[in-house]
Design goal:
About 75% of the residues lie in helices and about 0% in strands. By secondary structure, the chain is mainly α. Helix 1 runs parallel beside helix 12 and helix 4 packs antiparallel against helix 5.
Length: about 325
């Protein structure tokens, strides 16, 4: 990574971190309960789910793509485990493996639709997959909530804590460190950025773009499945109706706020974590202040629009800087 890129990332991190601090200060003034230890741990629990689906979303955005099925895939993976519970199967290893394999397979199918069947844009295929998974989750659970009560091993990841600190967030931190190393220190990571930032250069360099894209969408499916397992631990149930929840928009917002771009070739794990924390703090603040769901949706919609506007503005400024440098 060049010095200019590193300094640009540091400026971006500082701005995003500053926004997070300001948001926390405002909420602390508005609600005396915000900075209580129990509430801070609740924020981290809320962050875990979005941070996991945002990991897959980030890889897709870096390749100039998108995965609108991440939230539905997380719900579908949880419902696959729920389907087995309904059939009397309670072996935790089997439930976890089926959930992970199912979510990962969906991600692989998304990648194949894009690279082998050459659908025009992942927006189309993953939006269609979102609806397929929504229907599938309802069908396999007979449109009923399934309880995992008594199956502590399956719920462990999403429910366990160490001195009040959620295990799910510890897992997220480990995954983010591994992914940071993958993206910044490996040939595969450089290939991912190259495919999104300069497809022609990737082709001339001999990079197999189809394989790189398939990997990114497959990993996105794997992360969604992990998030689905976390959701089981948090609520103790799975519910196919949740497949239509705006988890994908939260993930997109986290990535864009953290410095990723719809144009591809940009985005970091550190920025995405800060973005996910901002979204979680916002949602937690809404709950503490008893803000109506209508206002919540309005504000989060504005946040997403603002994040996209920020992305467009960054691209324009970067393009202008390149033109001036070329003169």
């Amino acid at each position: 990574m060049t010095k200019s890129k590193k300094s640009s990332n540091l400026v971006s991190y500082a701005g995003t971190f500053g926004a997070l601090v300001i948001l926390c200060v405002v909420l602390a003034i508005a609600s005396p309960n915000f900075f209580k230890y129990s509430n801070m741990m609740s924020v981290l629990k809320q962050t875990s789910f979005n941070a996991l689906v945002s990991t897959g979303m980030l890889l897709c955005l870096i390749t100039a793509g998108i995965d609108l099925s991440v939230g539905a895939n997380a719900t579908f993976a949880a419902c696959l485990a729920g389907m087995l519970v309904n059939k009397g199967m309670n072996n935790p290893v089997l439930l976890l493996v089926v959930a992970i394999v199912g979510g990962t397979l969906i991600g692989w199918i998304n990648g194949m639709l894009l690279t082998r069947l050459h659908l025009p844009h992942p927006f189309v295929s993953t939006l269609g997959m979102k609806n397929v998974l929504w229907g599938g989750a309802l069908i396999i659970t007979n449109s009923q909530m399934v309880s995992f009560s008594g199956n502590d091993a399956v719920m462990w990841l999403g429910s366990s804590t160490v001195a009040g600190f959620p295990v799910s967030f510890i897992v997220v931190l480990v995954i983010y460190v591994i992914m940071h190393i993958l993206l910044t220190k490996t040939a595969l990571g450089r290939s991912i950025y190259c495919v999104g930032g300069n497809p022609e250069a990737a082709r001339l360099s001999g990079i197999n773009s189809a394989n790189v894209l398939t990997f990114c969408y497959t990993l996105s499916g794997f992360m969604a499945a992990l998030a689905g397992i976390v959701s089981i631990g948090r609520s103790g149930i799975c519910n196919g109706v949740n497949a239509i929840q705006p988890y994908d928009t939260d993930a997109i917002a986290a990535c864009i706020i953290g410095g990723a771009s719809f144009m591809g070739g940009k985005g970091t794990m550190v920025g995405t974590m800060l973005g996910a924390l901002i979204i979680a703090v916002l949602r937690n603040g809404f709950s503490l202040l008893s803000v109506s769901s209508a206002v919540q949706n309005l504000v989060l919609g504005l946040v997403i629009i603002g994040a996209v506007l920020l992305d467009v503005t960054r691209e324009r400024m970067a393009a202008k800087a390149r033109r001036l440098a070329a003169k």
